[in-house]
Specification:
Elements lengths: L14 H18 L1 E5 H20 L2 H10 L3 H15 L8 E6 L11 E6 L6 H15 L6 H11 L5 H32 L8 H15 L3 H7 L1 E3 L6 E3 L4
Antiparallel strand pairs: 1-3, 2-3, 4-5
């Protein structure tokens, strides 16, 4: 009927292409528990992901057959759906996924509205991490914990197994990192005055930086020369145009 409500987004694709796209997105979501895509794709994939997790909670032969028809590699992903995710959401009545708006993934060439599609109560739960960071900030302030923060704490720990203990561990870890980072900045200021190397609060980050510098230092003379080589438009040969 002309002018009727749109039941779903077509995503400017044919029916088969659209279904394959959503199956791929849902498979990536089950594998990584968090994916980044455009906002319309995330909203459509969310519907299929909610239905898929409901199949996992039912755990019947019919639901297994329906879930198997969605996955491209069912032998690889069905165990995760019917064991890990089923146990996680067994007591949750619904709302297994969350869509969060973010800045466009490629703002220069394709400023399409983007979003994060994630599984709630998982290791990559964005709201859980944001609530923990807010608790760290408000505990250090004089005003104390706000009412909205207390409501968010109740939301992220309500159906999460051992949610309150895990939130407390995360807050303690963030407070320790914040304290070490503050001490590290103070140590760097003192070290600059004394003319010595400062203490490294995050040695892994510093180690990665050193490894990257070593890789650039070990670059061969040929690779350095090829950076300055350009193709002559007349002869088609590569000509050296700079200095090492």
């Amino acid at each position: 009927m002309a002018g009727g409500a749109l039941k779903y987004r077509h995503l400017n694709r044919s029916s088969s292409h659209r279904q394959a796209l959503l199956r791929n997105l849902v498979t990536s979501l089950i594998t990584h528990e968090s994916i980044q895509t455009t906002w319309p794709k995330a909203k459509e994939a969310q519907r299929l992901a909610e239905k898929l997790i409901t199949y996992g909670k039912k755990n019947t032969n019919a639901s297994r057959a329906k879930a198997e028809s969605i996955f491209f590699e069912p032998l690889k992903h069905l165990p995760t759906l019917f064991t890990t995710l089923r146990q996680r959401y067994l007591n949750r009545p619904g709302g297994y996924t969350r869509v969060l708006r973010i800045e466009p993934l490629n703002r220069n060439n394709d400023p399409a509205p983007s979003a994060i599609l994630e599984l709630v109560d998982g290791p990559r739960d964005m709201r859980f991490a944001m609530t923990a960071k807010t608790l760290v900030r408000e505990r250090a302030s004089d005003e104390g914990i706000r009412e909205i923060t207390a409501r968010n704490v109740a939301k992220v720990t309500r159906f999460r197994e051992g949610g309150e203990k895990e939130l407390q561990r995360t807050v303690s870890r963030l407070e320790t990192m914040k304290r070490l980072g503050k001490e590290g900045r103070e140590e760097e200021e003192v070290a600059e005055k004394d003319g010595r190397e400062p203490w490294e609060p995050f040695p892994r980050m510093r180690q990665r930086k050193r490894e990257k510098e070593d890789e650039e230092r070990l670059m061969t003379e040929r690779e350095k020369k090829e950076r300055w080589m350009k193709r002559d438009p007349n002869t088609g040969r590569r000509v050296y145009t700079g200095s090492l």
